[in-house]
Amino acid sequence: MNKLKKNMWFMICVFVLMFVSLIGYTSFIIATNGSKWFASPYNTARIQRQRERVTPGDIYDANGLLMVTSDEKGNRVYPQSEVARFANAHVLGDPYGITSGGAEAKYNKYLYGFNLNMIDRTIQAFKAEKNKGNDIHLTIDSDLNKFMYEAMGNNQGAAVVMNYKTGEIVGSVSKDSFDPSTIKELMKKPLPEGDSRLLNKPNAGLYPPGSTFKMVTTASAFENIPDAENLKLDSPSSIKVNGEPITNYDKKQHGTIDLKKAVEVSSNTYFAQISKKIGADSLTKTANNFGFNDDFAFSDITLYQSSFSAGTSDNDLAWASVGQYKDLATPMHMCMVTSSIANDGAMMEPKLLKDMKNSLNMSIHFFRSNKYKQSVTPETSRKTKALLINAVENGTGKAAKVSGAKIGGKTGSAETDKGTHAWFTGFIDDPDHPYAVVVILENAGTGGSKAAPVAGKIFDRLLKK
Amino acid sequence: MINIEKIGGGIILFFIALFDITGFALLAFMDGTVNYLCLAMGFIAAAVLLLQYNILTRIFKGIDKYVIMIVNFLVAVGLIVIYRINAKLAVNQLVYYILGTVLMIGMMFLTMKMENFKQNKWRYIIMGGSVGLLAFTILFGSEKFGASNWITIAGRSIQPSELVKIVLVVMLASYFANEDKLIKQLPVIAFTGVCMILLLLQKDLGAVLLYFGTALIVFYVCTSNILLTLAGAGAGAAGAVGAYFMFGHVRDRVAIWRDPWARYYDKGMQIVQGLLAIASGGLFGTGLGRGFPDLVPVSYSDYIFVILVEEFGQIFGMAVLAFYIVLILRGAIIGRYAKTKFHMILAFACTTMISLQGFIIIAGVIKMIPLTGITLPFISYGGSSLLTSMAMIGILLGVSVTSAKSQKGMEATPKKAGRPVAGYGGERR
Predict the structure, then answer these.
(1) CB contact at 8 A, B378 and B387
(2) Whole-model pTM?
(3) How far is it, in rounded angstroms, from Cα A232 to Cα B166?
(4) CB contact under 8 A, B275 and A26
(5) Mean pLDDT of A296-304
């Protein structure tokens, strides 16, 4: 009888623990996945139904410019000009869950009032017939987005501007784009093969980073090779690593140069040699510190994973060190990499949500910038920064120069099967204008000749801000 | 610290009745018109609660009043949520609630009468009848929600696998309280096995798991035979693996559990929509009537927990789970002070059955374990389910009253600590 009672109590404790685990597990999955699930395309039915009861909130840009509002029926209305609609389309996303990762999807919980508390609801019940969701203010500068969209001309690609001190995304443009006010018609027939209109390229477009990756390799050299500044190596037009050739762009030869010059002229053969001195493990470590291979889980944007692999041979490593081989990165991530170099190695979490207002126009969101990780030491960061500033002053990035401003950056000409993507990634070294800019133009040519001038225009515009 | 026994049942009772009435009142005024049926349902539910509680606690000193309160509260939550999803079903459920109360009291008397049960003739008749009923269901049953575990009598569908649960707990208690040798316990073990096979053939996986778990746990607790328990668990695991390879629907369940998102359009939709409902409620819920239960299939039955969390909020969901925990603990206390070994095991088996059933379905809907269709005790819609659960509560109450009666003599002696020996209060009104 006593043994029976003892066993019974033991099992009862097990049952209680089972229920406690239910409480724990439920809280855990909601805390970790709740927002992600809510923003998933499977939840569109709930959002559509909520629209019958709640008027979705408005979306404003950083300067208080109205970007999206709703008519009496709850349909989305876009009061901006056509160019601005195209330029802001991917930042905003669409209310039907067709494009992914836009503000409409990411913040639908707030826009559609799922977070309204009892007090909010009571106040609204007295004020209006239909409840209204919360209004949202983004960090985006709508006019800057429009400017960037136009500066990119007829090219496809992406452009991103980020405040490297706070992580605020000030500009984010994806081309080809769409007009959100006609999204319903657009979805009636399937898009033709290869049409990337609905892809949010800054966050979801994975491109080989090309020579812009040399920023990472340079930082890694400073971290791992003593006296890397004065490491002089011969840089012919082509060298053989493991019997396979590594060539400079356009087969240029640069003679015996140091690291500063190598960044300035963007020499592949120099970096092929230095990557071997750094070593595959150390370079991979630096790349990972810069956020490559990270499963980003940011609250404000959905950012795809960038990848870096040193491969198995020295030849793989050499190509990987100059941003080819299997390297892939999103423009947003390259902007974060550049930002961290400009910001003493502190990589800020990208932020898109600046403020949120309830029905009494009271702010219910507390903006707080958040350091995502420390990519490299402040010392390494400063050394790398100096080389990047030199590369714009005297090197391949000249076209991005703005007179009177201190600008650093790195060009890239990423080779793919279809053509050469033109990259430029850079920053303004000025505490009053702490901006990092990334431009990628698909199949446009070299970074120095195509992307750098566009970036230069954006820098110029940012400096006038 | 607040002594809950000093507060007494009255105030808790008042809040449960208030919950009934306000819940239904809210629903009654929801579309701008007054729905008198709905208002009336709130008052009827409150009346059933108050009558049931007052009559039972007045007549039977020492009855476990907390069990009564928790059960009535859970049924009230169920009634309101079911009404919110489908008013017609809620009316049915209210009828089952009243019938369940009668059955509960009946089972209570029966349990008080039978302090032991060991007549072999009756054992075989009952077990044989149960197996016959389950077999009959396979042959003539109808299919609902992917399991063919229903039979229709006079226009009403009943679920024999629910009713046989009571037989199972009684038989387990009967054999393990009276037979010490394994060979003499064999009939009930065989009975459980046969039931499980029949249920598996009905594709009622939840019931299979529940029968197996209950029998195994009762076996372990009564015999303390760890070796055989582990062997049983191993056999169960082997059976599960076997079922995985033999039955397509078992494989489906596991695949959906592993990644419901990837199989959204292929049966994963229910789990995904359930998770989305849980995620969209927030801490305090969307508010009664402001969620979207029609997006979740079978929301009034197996999936009622997610609707509850969506509309009443996560905190309320946690509170419901906490109520189950208190119910389990009360069950344990009742078993602890039971008069006879038969009663002790009976109370424990009922507690085990209810806890396992609650755990299996809630863990299933939150994707902690593969989902097996089974009702949430007291809350889910379903006559068979509610009647069975309330019958088991009747058994628990019967055990508690019997033990309180038998300890009356002891209570006549002066109490030192002022705490009744039985420990479950109610005597000092």
Answers:
(1) no
(2) 0.76
(3) 86
(4) no
(5) 86
